[in-house]
Structures are given as C-alpha cells and as structure tokens.
Amino acid sequence: MDTQDIPAELKSYFASSHIALALAGVTADNPLLLVNAPFHQLTGYDAADVVGRNCRLLQRDAENREARAKIHAFLEDDRIGAVRTTIVNFRKDGRPFVNLLYMSKLKALSGEVRFLFASQFDISRSQPELLSAYDTELSRTLSRLSPTLAESGIVIEGSLMTIANTVATVAQAKLTLADLDAPGFP
Description:
six-stranded antiparallel beta sheet
C-alpha cells in the first residue's frame, strides 16, 4: 500500500490538523504512510525520515513493556478498536519524551482494516490543562474525521471513551518522567 491509496479527504484532514497525527498501513510491519506537520514538530522526524518505516523507530532501546503489550493486543485482536497508552519515545535528536499514544483502526465498510490511525502528545512536562485541551482536540478530530472517512467508505473504530482518564494519565506520565530523569538514562 502506498500514499496513493489514502483517500484525498484524509490527506487533507491530516494537513490541516493542529495535533500530531500518523497513518500506518496494515501490511507486514505496519509501515507509516502519512505524518503531519505537528508530528514533525513533536518528534523532529519529517515524512522522508519515517514513511515506509514502522513507528517503533521512535522507541529506540526503551523497554516500554506494558505499552508494547497493549499495542500488540490492539493490533492482534479485532475486538479492540482503539488503544491509549503512555510510551517512552525519542525525538530525532535523541531527547526522550513520554508520548501519550492513541491508536484506532480505520475499517472499510466490509469490516476489513484499511489503516491504523494514531495521534501523539508529549506529556513529559505538560500541565494537566494542556492535556485536557489535547483530549478535547482529539475528540473533535475523531468526531470530524468520522464523516470525512465515511465519504470514502471507511469507519473509525473505537470510542471516545478511550480518551478518558486524564488525571490517571498525568500521574502515570509523572512516574515515567521520574524514570527518564534518573541518573544513567540518556
């Protein structure tokens, strides 16, 4: 699958979004097909760096055991429509950050998964009100994206309930941040 298979409406939506978005294929190793400008601002990687590669390149050598388990379950189980987890990622320049990753499956009307949709947010040092604003924007994105995708015969899986739990997410990020700031961590 290549970027020509991505509906024009979806490409346009990505280009206009104010939050970091990525789109991956569902072929072997789920290669990234599309990233937007906020993704580049967050990670330092532009499309030429990441398209065709799996987004795990952002993890480098970080363990991320719990996050990886959640992501693998999401990818392997058709009943799981969306996942949200914190995961340690690294910017292109090597600086670590705690990424609040949201992933959802985009399905054709036939039920076949066509794409993997993802949004990223750096919660390493953010204030709870910024996370709340991001949650609101992600909810708007998903709400606006649904009719846009429907025009192309694609349905977004998962629910907005996956976005809930801001307080718990911030607490988890603070614990992860303490680990990142520990001596010996790059």
